[in-house]
Amino acid sequence: MTAVDPSFIRYLAAKRSIDDQALNRRVWDVVWSHLGSGEPGRPLRILEIGAGIGTMIERILEWTRLQVASYTALDSQPGLLAEAEVRLRAWAAHRGWGAEAEQEGRLGLQGDRRSVGVEFLTMEVVDALEGGAVEGPWDLVLAHAVLDLLDLERTVAPLVARAAPGGILHFTLNFDGASVFAPPVEAELEARLERAYHATMDERRAGGRPTGGSRTGRLLFGALTAAGAEILAGGASDWVVFPRQGAYAEDEAMFLAAILDTVEEALRGRSGISSGELNSWLAARRGHLARGQLSYIAHQLDFAARRPG
């Protein structure tokens, strides 16, 4: 199994509460108003791409009345899916649910007269779509905070095609072109840093092809429509993280530290931003974080769409 950096797992876990606050609840409610809860003999069929450590599975079980489901959690990193199984077992134990391995790569969750079978599938998303591993049809297709890392042309239309007629697609936390830190520092430097940081997203390649990049959110309007989907709802799902009376809630400080590390990794050695400028900015921002003064906003969009039929 490919090892996963423990700090990345900690970041994904810390992000759970921040994502909970960011998710657009109006869009969420539209999604679940179009879905049943599943029943014996007719489970709700759910596919999630980029499932990570399973936080969306936890969230659905906590936020909805889902009764019976067959859930396929797809991710390219087996270490993340292994952590998802560990977390789901702990989630179930905390609530007095059963969690049994049905077979290798499958976990059955039962409790409160509810039953959800989870299959953990390790594959690259495009490979899974082009190779027929996730044919469906699916009642619900999920992509949470992942489409900006993927080639939209090779991802969105195949996902729409794999939804059942009348099936729902829920694409959440799609980055859309704004990374804001406060309090203000040198305005001209901050603007250049933001442009350079977003440019690293736009230059990123997956299999030699461009990914969704820094404007994934707005691109999804056209991508979903071109794929034949009907957009049911859309709305902002911004990360907005800020201190309260000089302190951060839950894992927010860890999350903010990870964001600063990500910016540093992306911009270190990049032309147009000198080491001195980057070091100065990072020192200021890490000082703000240590003193409980740093705030951060990332603009993102959520979508609910339906395959006609």
Return the structural class.
alpha/beta
What is the count of DSSP helices, taking H or I runs of 4+ residues? 10
Major sheet: size, sense and barrel closure?
10 strands, mixed
Please state roughly what percent of the residues sit in beta strands, choosing from under 5%, 5-15%, 15-25%, 25-35%, 35-45% or over 45%: 25-35%
Q: What is the residue-mean pLDDT, rounded to a whole number? A: 96
Low-pLDDT runs? none
The number of E-state strands comes to 12
Q: Distance N terminus to C terminus? A: 41 Å
What does this structure look like?
With 309 residues, the chain is of the alpha/beta class. It has a domain at 6-177 and 207-242 and 299-306: Rossmann fold (3-Layer(aba) Sandwich), CATH 3.40.50.150. 41% of the residues lie in helices and 28% in strands. It contains ten helices and twelve strands. The chain has helices at 6-22, 25-33, 55-63, 78-94, 125-131, 156-162, 187-203, 216-226, 252-267, 275-290; strands spanning 44-49, 68-75, 98-103, 106-111, 114-122, 138-144, 163-182, 205-206, 209-210, 230-236, 239-241, 295-306. Strand 8 (205-206) and strand 9 (209-210) form a beta hairpin. The radius of gyration is 20 Å and the shape is globular. The mean pLDDT is 96.
